[in-house]
Amino acid sequence: MNRMEFSCMWTIFGCLAFVRSLLPVEIVEALTRWLRKLNSHLVPYVVFEIPEFEGSSINELYKNVQLHLTAKNLCRNARKTVLCRVKNSTNTTSTLAGGEGVMETFEGAKIWWTHAVHGFKTSDGSSQDHRSYTLKIHKRDRDRIIPAYLDEIRENAYNFMFKNREMLLYSNSKSASSMSRHLWQAIHFKHPSTFDTLAVEPSQLQTIKTDLDAFIAGKEYFRRVGRPWKRGYLLYGPAGSGKSSMIAAIANYLKWDVYDLELTQVRSNSELKQLLIQTTNKSVIVIEDIDCSVCFAHPRSRQPTSSSSELSFSESSEQGKLEDDGGRITLSGLLNFTDGLWSCCGNERILIFTTNHVDKLDAALLRPGRMDLHIHMSYCTYSAFKTLSLNYLTLENHHLFPKVEKLIRNGAKITPAQVSEILIQNRDNSDDAMENLVSFLEHRAWSSCKIHPNA
Predict the structure, then answer these.
(1) Which helix (H) or strand (E) holds 439?
(2) Could you tell me which PROSITE patterns the record lists for this protein (predicted)?
(3) How far apart are CA 34 and CA 16, in angstroms?
(4) How far apart are CA 148 and CA 376, in angstroms?
């Protein structure tokens, strides 16, 4: 329909409106119904209004649309926007100002959004704004896309709000009664560690990032193969090798909350189950120093040689005694926590164990399905040292770098934490930092009898 046809149509409507004032009410009502039917055939679009409030309650769909438009960066096409910050967010974002509109495409259909703001007077004389979003689509696309499009709006809004909120660090406490409804206590998580600041081999870092990316994108895959959507990591290596920093970097990379589970504060298997139930989706569950947390490291090795049935009975008896007498969790309870039926009560979870002594752990804890990826956090390598020198001293090269490389490659053991401390203490003088580091490495090399310090 061209402009001339639209002009003629509205001229007819104007004449009909004048005629209506001269006609009886019955005829006017019939004429109105006819005009509505005519309008529905002539106008090819359908319009939905989404108000900010539904009665006295906030309309969640209004908030979802606002976040969706921001997440898709559609507001950049508007002439006028409003700067704002989502609750518990760390970033400033922009939304549509009143009267502004944008357009996007979904599954081949064009969708127009308009943000309307109208002022009105309340009964007490004060002024308030009535805000709403208007969605306009072609009638032929209404039934085809609306359900799926609303689902996408909700998902985009949730993901945007989740990624921009403040992350939380949860811990369990023995002071919390097992009968309490809230077994976790939370504080804001603001650890600065990232994959860019970690002192690990680049190839190892890439392996971890690739595994995380595949896990995040694997919802349909895990569903298809019939496995819970979770992943287990074992971080093992000497104290000071960066295991805690790796956990923080993983959490920051995913933008997920962290649940730091202290097993020595858990009274029983049933309480461990309740703690698991109260964790949220998209979370990292951490058990640090698993070999020191509970006394079930290599429980099978402590059993006398016996048949499999006798061994099973003996283990069950010992586990029951641990739980009943000492109020401690058992190996079977922890195994059920990692991959039993109760481990399936949520989605998108990373479970991380750390240990300084991997050889002390029972093999049942280490198999795939429980600890899927084993990550060795070793002593400081030369490439890790270069990362630390760049982070702490902004130093990319130094005449002592070759000596550091030789000492490390010839077996002088030093942890990333020890290197970091030397660099921090001498951060105002890079020459002193390098000399002290070389001196420390030479002493380590001499002590280990690997090489002579003057070699």
Answers:
(1) helix 430-447
(2) AAA (PS00674)
(3) 11
(4) 44
What are the residue ranges in the chain where pLDDT is below 70?
Answer: 1-21, 23, 31, 34-42, 86-90, 122, 174-182, 294-328, 342-343, 449-455
pLDDT of residue 36: 67
Write out pLDDT tens, residues 10-47: 666 666 666 666 767 777 777 677 666 666 666 788 99
Beta-carbon contacts of residue 43 (< 8 Å; ≥ 6 apart): none
Distance CA 318, CA 70 (A): 57
Domain spans, the chain: 1-43, 45-164, 173-376, 382-447
- Full DSSP string of 81-100: EEEEE-TTBSSEEEEEPTT-
Overall CATH class of domain 173-376: alpha beta
SS3 string, 96-115, reads ECCCCEEEEEECCEEEEEEE
For residue 3, give Cα distances in angstroms to 8, 9, 113.
9, 10, 23
For 350, the token pair is 């990373």
Residue with the two structure tokens 């309309």: 59
Which residue spans within 270-420 are E strands per DSSP? 283-287, 349-355, 373-376
In the chain, what are the helix, strand and coil shares in percent, each to the nearest 5? 50, 20, 30
Is 0.90 surpassed by the pTM of this model? no
For 288-331, what is each residue's pLDDT tens digit? 998 887 655 454 444 444 443 333 333 343 344 334 444 567 87
Residues 338-353, buried b or exposed e (16+ Cβ, 10 A)?
bbbebbeebebbbbbb
Alpha helices (runs of H) in 21-54, residue ranges in sequence order: 25-42
Share of the chain above pLDDT 70, in %: 79
* Predicted confidence (pLDDT) per residue in 106-135, tens digit: 999 999 999 999 887 767 777 778 899 999
Query: In this predicted model, what pLDDT tens digit does every residue of 405-426 receive, in sequence order?
Result: 999 999 899 999 999 999 999 9
Whether 436 contacts 422, CB under 8 Å? yes
Tokens of 251: 């959490």
Which amino acid type is present at position 381? T
Q: Taking a C-beta distance cutoff of 8 angstroms, is the pair 423, 433 a contact?
A: yes
Q: Is the CB of residue 299 less than 8 Å from the CB of residue 318?
A: yes
d(CA 353, CA 371): 8
